[in-house]
Amino acid sequence: MEEIELRVAIYERLGLEFGSLPSESGNDWQRAKDEVLEENRQIEFEKLQQLKKIDYAKVDKESDEYKTVMNSKSLQMQVFHITISSRSDLLNDDINKLFQIGNKDILINLAKNVNLSELNINEIIEKGTYLARKNLVNSRELTAEQKLLLLDKMKEHKNLYSDLIDLIK
How far apart are the C-alpha atoms of 15 and 18, rounded to whole Å? Predict the structure, then answer.
């Protein structure tokens, strides 16, 4: 909840016109603030309970539930973000939002299932784990520049990436 929204809700709780108090402090202010925040937490908890019942691999991308999850940066939503990242119908905006989360499982799913731009592939090369990079090598036609970048990243851990290095060369 934004600070201004919180203040408006507190004034409503107190039954006062917004901005009418000379000081936004005191026992009544704190009590109203605590009540408003608790109600907001309860509403968010109920929304989360409803969101858990949805299959995000199949839900309509125009639905409110899908948009709520995609616009959330909450750690509680990461399970849903991982499920969404396995969809093959993601648009560039969705892919960018998922990249911002930075979860390794999301990167693995994107490398495996999604048609990525050159910029997205480069980002997976930079930030990805072994499985994300392996999915890139196995399922993509990489440019010579991307192969060199990938080889540079993998040479840091030759033992781990020896099979992938052989595939690229």
Answer: 9
The CA dihedral of 106, 109, 114, 120, to the nearest 10 degrees, is 50
- Calculate the alpha carbon distances from 112 to 95, 101, 131, 138, 153 in Å: 13, 17, 9, 9, 19
Amino acid letter at 48?
L
Report the C-alpha gap between 156 and 101 in whole angstroms: 25
Instruction: Write the pLDDT tens digit of every residue in 49-87.
Output: 777 788 888 889 998 889 888 988 888 888 999 999 999
CB 110 within 8 A of CB 122: no
Residue 30: Cβ within 10 Å count:
12
Cα separation, 139 vs 116, in Å, equals: 11
